[in-house]
Amino acid sequence: MQHQVILSIGSNQGDKLAAIEQCIEVLHMQVGTVVKVSRLYETPSWGFESDAFYNCVVLMHTQKTPAKILAEILKVEKRLGRIRTAQSGYEARAIDIDIIDFDGTFVKTANLQIPHPQMENRLFVLVPLKDVKPDFAHPQSKKSIGDLIRESVDKSDCKFIGKLKSPLSKLPLEQFNYIAIEGNIGAGKTTLANKIADDFNAKSIFERFADNPFLPKFYKDQSRYAFPLEMSFLADRYQQLSDDLAQFDLFKDFIVADYHIFKSLIFAKVTLTDDEYRLYRKLFEIIYKEMPKPDLYIYLYQNTERLLANIKRRGRTYEQEIPAEYLDKINRGYLDYIKSQTDLNVLVIDVSDKDFVKSQEDYVFILEQIRNKIPQ
To answer: How far is CA 266 from CA 121, 211, 257, 277, in A?
Structure first.
């Protein structure tokens, strides 16, 4: 699950605009996905005499804890020239980053308090905060952002300077109306689909694999339960995709799914006998003709060693005895299918050495690979 974090950014030294823009990019590359950026404002220095500040607020998605976010934004400040001194009180700074809100909750430790204890007294936080989250309510007082601005003791001038670009504006993934993300067992397709859908405000379709009653039985006795398992999956995928896609406009909505119905044929070829597969394929082809095809088909490739480690880590009891040979066959089945496709826009991404859950840079790398497939 991703957390929604609001950060305030300020600068009053050097090229302030460049510092703010660079800070947003570094946060996006290293800390979390910057999904919204406020407009840029100029305000007088607050609490001390110095040059005016440029300020903005960003809304970020991340799976990191507040303590981890604090540690990482301190590194970002240092990288961008912030020099912290032993001097007490406020001082000029090349860049300043504060955590304003974390999931609308209250956090207090020896080093951190969220929401920021001074936010109600700072128009340079409240005004840009309204840009990115107009429905914001203070976690403790429950006051709306409008009330917070009206009642603030800070009456300084918060001057609009201009607009700032969000990093996601360079990634217009919504040009793909329908993206299907595929991968072997444990490759992370559902996690990636969920992150993209969340970050880009897309409609999502997730496979209901956990509800299949034949799956635990199949892993104990494959020869007996392979055919009912694959038929059950096919029927469920067809019904779910038909129902879910019918709710969306394939010409207007941006849809992200964590599977494509063709995976049914790939798994069936591995698990079924020749006679069973021939019968299955006849039924599949009837269904497949009716299904909408994705604008982009993404295959997350992971080597078998990494897949086994992921499967062990997520701890589903019925998956723990999956043999490496089975995963090898599934990988080959996907790659053979991809080679045979002439009318499908396919992107294969090798994520064997990537961790797009823990590493923001790895996630941004994947987004860049997808961006490269956007029609020019």
So the answer is: 60, 20, 17, 10
Tens of pLDDT along 286-311? 998 888 889 999 999 999 999 988 88
Q: Which residues have C-beta within 8 Å of that of residue 289, sequence separation ≥ 6?
A: none
Q: At which residue do the structure tokens 């607009």 appear? A: 163
Q: What is the DSSP letter of 357?
A: T
Any long-range contacts for 141-149 (C-beta under 8 Å, 24+ apart)? 148/119, 148/120, 149/123
CA distance 96 to 91: 10
96, 131, 258, 295: which is the annotated catalytic residue?
Answer: 258
CA distance 17 to 371: 26
In this prediction, residue 88 carries a pLDDT of: 46
Tell me the pTM: 0.88
Q: Report the alpha-carbon distance of residue 242 to residue 187 in Å, rounded.
A: 25
Report yes or no: 282 and 230 within 8 Å, Cβ to Cβ. no
Around Cβ 228, how many Cβ atoms within 10 Å? 14
Tell me if residue 343 is catalytic.
no
Write the DSSP symbol of residue 121: G
Phi, psi at 36, each rounded to 5°: -140, 145
Please give the structure tokens belonging to residue 281.
């394929």
Q: Do the Cβ atoms of 109 and 135 come closer than 8 Å?
A: no
Q: What pLDDT shows up at residue 85?
A: 52
pLDDT in tens, 80-102: 876 665 454 455 578 999 999 99
Contacts for 298 with CB less than 8 Å, ≥ 6 apart: 179, 180, 181, 182, 346, 347, 348, 349, 370
How far is the CA of 285 from the CAs of 60, 264, 296, in angstroms? 43, 11, 21
Give phi and psi for 69, each to the nearest 5: -60, -45
Burial (CB count <10 Å: 0-12, 13-18, 19+), residue 214: middle
Take residue 173 and report the two structure tokens written for it.
């993934």
Strands (E), the chain: 3-11, 33-37, 40-43, 53-62, 96-102, 107-108, 113-114, 159-162, 178-183, 203-205, 255-257, 296-301, 346-350
Q: How far are the Cα atoms of 26, 194, 217, 234, 243 from residue 257, in angstroms, in the given order?
A: 29, 9, 26, 16, 13
